[in-house]
Amino acid sequence: MRYIDDFENAAKKHLPQIQGNIWIFGAEYWDFVSFCPQFAPMPLFIRSYEREDGMIENIAESAHAAANEVDEIIARIKYQGGDKVREICAEATRYLDLLYRSDEVSV
Question: Which among 10, 28, 43, 75 could disulfide-bond with 3, CB atoms 3.0 to 4.6 Å apart, if both were Cys?
């Protein structure tokens, strides 16, 4: 199993994901949990990480840049594609709009 001997470094490799979760959920901290009942010396490892606003700003910038890039690609496809492509893009855009207005989406 990977990382079995070094839980601290294993958790650090997940920092972007941890900080992304903190950003998305508006949390002040996040617990990294690793559980392996076969590893007798430490079957359960829990480490709390506090919010790192600098890393979260970088993640947010990257996420927004990626979303803008997807929007540009969709716009190009709509312009260059045929009717079927425009129809697919319109449906995808409707779903994205629902996601952006998450307070209106019921789970």
Answer: 10
